Amino acid sequence: MRYPALLACTALTLMAGAGPGFADDVTAWRLFVADHAAAKVTAIDLGTDATLDTFALESPGVLYTTPSNQAVYAVQGAVNLVSAISSGIEIEDHGDHGDIHVAAPAAIAAAVAGEKPVHFVEHHGEIALFYDGEGVARLVSEQDWLDGDDKLAIREIDTDAPHHGVAIPWGKYALATDFAPNGETTRPQGIFVYDAQNAKVGDLYECPLLHGEATSGNITAIACATGLLIATGSGAPEITHLPYPASLPEGNVSTLLGGVGLQYFLGNYGPDKVVLIDPTEADAFRLIELPTRRVHFAVDPQQPKFAYIFTEDGKLHQLNVLSGKIAKSITLTEPYSMDGEWSLPRPRIAVAGHEIAVTDPLKGLVHIVDASTFELDRDIPVEGLPYNIVAIGGSGATH
């Protein structure tokens, strides 16, 4: 289903003296697509499929967004920089409705430098960037970044040694990884809690081969070789360990996504499996076998019971997270083998309202699938090798 850029669905005539004469419901969605080889991001209006603008980066970037939907963040590890682009879409919550404001996307002047940025984590309006080359986490307010101030207030947490780490903002506190060298990996071996003065609180929470974190509802999960660390609480985080059950085959989670609308986690588990996790259940882990090796996966924030998995045979699968079954599948591309380097250009998924966007780098296309029918709706050509992708948008009233 196609959405005009500013689709007026209804018009409400208001009583005299009650406010503006009309309120229109508007839906607007945009895709932001990073190129695999070129240092650029293409902004696409999903109402017209037209390119709104192309933004130059310093090097090819990995894209992230946050629940605010107000910006796209480009992590550019090759040039030691994280920069941002305003999405041009803002939804203002008024309780019984939201007001939507639509403008042109624009580059934001503020950026955060540091040696080898990799992991980007947002939690409750704060953003944590971890710089592997320094072992330093830099935390900033998202609102300050959106305001565009060149001199962002940055909170730094030094973990004492460069490693492939991560940090999670937690109000006055923060969680950050600890590197315990074992001669075999640069992966962290656990996390510490830090207070507002960036001092460690308590002992190390062990988490061997830590990699992957996500938040769903009021739970944050961190993946380890032995299970998950589960963090909860509105003050200092309360952290417990959820071990993998003996029923799971050998393996571990290293990428986690958090459900929206439904509280659950979706993680990888070996090359051709995923696992659904509900830490509140006695039987917390459900393993799902895939027909072939997994390339990428994403959750659906609009239809919470669904997630999507792209496999190397060129198929997109709809996973029902309630039943734990693959409900539908569609062939979108030629095969993209998972043999070879992990960083080769392969498809990525983003969910835009009632549409699912899948990049096809080798064909220079973004495939748009109707989430309701799970059929291909159309293709959008994108110059170059369209690779990482995020979708930003929503619906609201205009006055």
From TrEMBL:
Signal sequence, renumbered to the chain: 1-23
UniProt keyword Lipid metabolism present: no
Plastid keyword on record: no
InterPro entries xrefs: N2O_reductase_N, Quino_amine_DH_bsu
Superkingdom, taxonomy of origin: Bacteria
SUPFAM superfamilies cross-referenced by the UniProt entry: Nitrous oxide reductase, N-terminal domain, YVTN repeat-like/Quinoprotein amine dehydrogenase
Keyword field: Signal
Transmembrane segments: none
Name the record gives this protein: Zinc transport system substrate-binding protein
Organism: Devosia neptuniae
